[in-house]
Write a structure and sequence with these properties.
Elements lengths: L10 E10 L19 E13 L4 E10 L2 E11 L7 E15 L2 E17 L2 E10 L1
Protein backbone atom coordinates (compact mmCIF):
# COMPACT_ATOMS: atom_id res chain seq x y z
CA UNK A 1 0.00 0.00 0.00
CA UNK A 2 1.08 3.51 -0.75
CA UNK A 3 -0.42 6.48 1.07
CA UNK A 4 -0.01 10.09 0.09
CA UNK A 5 -0.78 12.48 2.91
CA UNK A 6 -0.94 16.23 2.83
CA UNK A 7 -1.07 18.43 5.90
CA UNK A 8 -4.12 20.66 6.15
CA UNK A 9 -3.67 24.34 5.42
CA UNK A 10 -2.69 26.38 8.43
CA UNK A 11 -4.88 29.36 7.57
CA UNK A 12 -8.54 29.31 6.69
CA UNK A 13 -10.50 32.36 5.61
CA UNK A 14 -14.19 33.13 5.38
CA UNK A 15 -15.94 36.20 4.08
CA UNK A 16 -19.40 37.28 3.10
CA UNK A 17 -21.71 40.16 2.46
CA UNK A 18 -25.41 40.77 2.79
CA UNK A 19 -27.85 43.56 3.31
CA UNK A 20 -30.24 43.98 6.16
CA UNK A 21 -33.05 46.29 7.07
CA UNK A 22 -33.65 47.78 10.52
CA UNK A 23 -37.40 47.73 9.80
CA UNK A 24 -39.35 46.08 12.58
CA UNK A 25 -43.06 46.07 13.20
CA UNK A 26 -42.66 48.28 16.23
CA UNK A 27 -44.34 51.53 17.10
CA UNK A 28 -41.94 54.44 16.60
CA UNK A 29 -41.42 56.19 19.92
CA UNK A 30 -41.13 59.98 20.23
CA UNK A 31 -37.51 61.05 19.78
CA UNK A 32 -36.64 58.01 17.62
CA UNK A 33 -38.06 59.34 14.36
CA UNK A 34 -34.60 60.46 13.16
CA UNK A 35 -33.60 56.90 12.32
CA UNK A 36 -34.89 56.29 8.84
CA UNK A 37 -35.58 52.80 7.57
CA UNK A 38 -32.94 51.94 5.00
CA UNK A 39 -31.02 48.94 3.78
CA UNK A 40 -27.69 48.42 5.47
CA UNK A 41 -24.79 46.60 3.78
CA UNK A 42 -23.17 44.00 6.03
CA UNK A 43 -19.72 42.47 5.57
CA UNK A 44 -18.15 39.60 7.47
CA UNK A 45 -14.62 38.27 7.55
CA UNK A 46 -12.92 35.52 9.49
CA UNK A 47 -9.47 34.04 9.70
CA UNK A 48 -8.27 31.00 11.64
CA UNK A 49 -4.69 29.88 12.20
CA UNK A 50 -4.34 26.19 13.03
CA UNK A 51 -1.23 24.53 14.45
CA UNK A 52 0.15 27.77 15.84
CA UNK A 53 3.87 27.60 16.73
CA UNK A 54 4.00 24.02 15.43
CA UNK A 55 1.70 22.83 18.19
CA UNK A 56 -2.05 22.21 18.26
CA UNK A 57 -2.84 25.79 19.31
CA UNK A 58 -5.55 27.63 17.34
CA UNK A 59 -6.32 31.34 17.10
CA UNK A 60 -9.39 32.69 15.34
CA UNK A 61 -10.84 36.11 14.53
CA UNK A 62 -14.42 36.66 13.33
CA UNK A 63 -15.82 40.05 12.38
CA UNK A 64 -19.12 41.47 11.14
CA UNK A 65 -19.43 45.12 10.20
CA UNK A 66 -22.35 47.19 8.94
CA UNK A 67 -23.83 50.62 9.46
CA UNK A 68 -26.11 49.06 12.10
CA UNK A 69 -23.82 46.63 13.93
CA UNK A 70 -20.20 45.78 14.64
CA UNK A 71 -18.97 42.47 16.01
CA UNK A 72 -15.48 41.16 16.74
CA UNK A 73 -14.74 37.78 18.30
CA UNK A 74 -11.19 36.62 19.05
CA UNK A 75 -10.57 33.11 20.42
CA UNK A 76 -7.42 31.25 21.38
CA UNK A 77 -7.43 27.52 22.14
CA UNK A 78 -4.53 25.77 23.90
CA UNK A 79 -5.05 21.99 24.09
CA UNK A 80 -2.78 19.80 26.20
CA UNK A 81 -2.15 22.71 28.54
CA UNK A 82 1.09 22.40 30.55
CA UNK A 83 1.83 19.05 28.86
CA UNK A 84 -1.31 17.43 30.27
CA UNK A 85 -3.35 15.79 27.49
CA UNK A 86 -6.54 16.08 29.57
CA UNK A 87 -6.33 19.89 30.09
CA UNK A 88 -7.45 22.54 27.59
CA UNK A 89 -7.37 26.32 28.11
CA UNK A 90 -9.38 28.75 25.97
CA UNK A 91 -9.43 32.55 25.93
CA UNK A 92 -12.22 34.58 24.31
CA UNK A 93 -12.65 38.31 23.72
CA UNK A 94 -15.87 39.81 22.29
CA UNK A 95 -16.87 43.29 21.17
CA UNK A 96 -20.41 43.93 19.94
CA UNK A 97 -22.31 47.14 19.22
CA UNK A 98 -25.71 47.46 17.57
CA UNK A 99 -28.24 50.05 16.49
CA UNK A 100 -30.74 47.71 14.87
CA UNK A 101 -33.54 48.26 17.37
CA UNK A 102 -35.26 51.64 17.10
CA UNK A 103 -35.68 52.14 20.82
CA UNK A 104 -32.07 51.78 22.02
CA UNK A 105 -28.42 51.20 21.12
CA UNK A 106 -26.16 48.81 22.95
CA UNK A 107 -22.49 47.98 23.32
CA UNK A 108 -21.06 44.82 24.85
CA UNK A 109 -17.44 44.04 25.72
CA UNK A 110 -16.68 40.67 27.21
CA UNK A 111 -13.78 38.35 27.90
CA UNK A 112 -13.46 34.90 29.37
CA UNK A 113 -10.99 32.18 30.19
CA UNK A 114 -12.04 28.55 30.30
CA UNK A 115 -10.14 25.63 31.80
CA UNK A 116 -11.43 22.22 30.84
CA UNK A 117 -10.29 18.86 32.19
CA UNK A 118 -11.31 15.54 30.72
CA UNK A 119 -12.12 13.21 33.60
CA UNK A 120 -13.36 10.26 31.53
CA UNK A 121 -14.36 9.43 27.95
CA UNK A 122 -17.65 11.28 28.28
CA UNK A 123 -17.09 13.48 31.34
CA UNK A 124 -15.57 16.97 31.31
CA UNK A 125 -15.01 19.36 34.19
CA UNK A 126 -15.10 23.04 33.13
CA UNK A 127 -14.25 26.27 34.95
CA UNK A 128 -15.23 29.55 33.22
CA UNK A 129 -14.19 33.02 34.40
CA UNK A 130 -16.25 35.65 32.52
CA UNK A 131 -15.52 39.36 32.62
CA UNK A 132 -17.14 42.23 30.82
CA UNK A 133 -20.03 44.55 30.79
Amino acid sequence: MLYELEEARRYSFSWGWARSSPHRRLRVLPGCAGRADRLSPRFSFGVTRENLWGEAHTISLRTRISTLEQLGLLTYNWPRFDGNRNLTVSFTALYEASRDVRTFDYKREEGSMQLQQRVGKSLLFTIVTPTGG
